[in-house]
Amino acid sequence: MPDSNYFKKLVESRKKMRTKDISDELAEREVNTLFNLLKHFYQKDFNDSTNVVVDIGCGDGYLKKCFEKKKFKYLGYDVEDLDIEKDKLPVEDRSVDIVINIGLIEALKDYKNLMSESYRILRPNGFFYTITPNWHKDYKNFYNNPIHKKPYTPNSLKQALEINNFNSVKILPGLRSKPMWYYKGYLRFEKAYFLLPFNRYDFKKKKYYSNNFIRRLIPEFLKGHSRSIIAIAKK
Q: Total domain count for the chain?
């Protein structure tokens, strides 16, 4: 498992760089994107109060409040709780509706335990949701992160899920809260990369991360530049 000190420092630095409003906005866009994609591609709505989500690699649990607004019970686990490359999740078999992990799988030398444990705890027809860099679009930057171990392409990630017994796999560009036509079609990764040249939150590099005026100078229809993959799979 990657050095836990790195993740602790990452969470601490994000707290310093993000205002509460920015953090809440990011979380809302992340969670709303998940549910919009599930509704569109799987015709799945969650309308009761008995649903459970497990967030692996949850960091400071910034998604918790948004899931709870959706009436989900939220369980978050990070490096201080377990080693996801070898440990068993402290969750009962077939008791979870969604397993989510964002920016985790590329930091693992071996994804097998992550997928097998996720499969074990998911209910039949439950969903596995992951986001990772797209090697085709981000190969120049991938190893600039010291904890990155294993890159994925859309095809390799799809195969990894299928050989671990998941089905109905959808491989999509890592965009948040965009019209559905961006997520569809043979050229969907090119659309997400070239038609949206500006990353919504790249301004953090210029220390304008929490300055709403600066962030809004770029038109919304040009924001979303994607170098990542969203993968959704069904048990």
A: 1
Element (H, E) at 175: none
State the average pLDDT over residues 21-36: 88
Residue 213 lies in a domain: no
The amino acid at 176? R
Nearest partner of 30 among 91, 103, 89, judged by Cα: 103
Segment of 14-18, 222-226, 231-235 carrying the highest mean pLDDT: 231-235
206 located within any domain: no
pLDDT tens-place string over residues 112-141? 999 999 999 999 999 999 999 999 999 999
Q: Which residue has the tokens 């205002």?
A: 19
Q: How many helices (H) and strands (E) does the chain have?
A: 8, 6
Q: How many Å apart are CA 93 and CA 232, to the nearest integer? A: 20
Domain for residue 202, yes or no? no
Tokens of 134: 């797209």
Q: Measured between alpha carbons, how far is residue 124 from residues 89, 119, 165 in Å?
A: 18, 9, 12
Rounded to whole angstroms, how far apart are CA atoms 81 and 69?
Answer: 25
Q: Which two tokens stand for residue 95?
A: 């008791």
Helix (H, G, I), strand (E, B) or coil at 75: strand
Residue 218, Cα to own-chain centre: how many angstroms?
A: 24
Q: Please identify which residue in the block is written with the tokens 């491989």.
A: 171
Tokens standing for 130?
């992951």
Q: Which helix (H) or strand (E) holds 82?
A: none
214 within a domain of the structure (yes/no):
no
Cβ within 8 Å of residue 166, ≥6 positions away? 115, 119, 128, 233, 234, 235
Domain span including residue 131: 4-194+228-234
Q: What is the pLDDT of residue 207?
A: 45
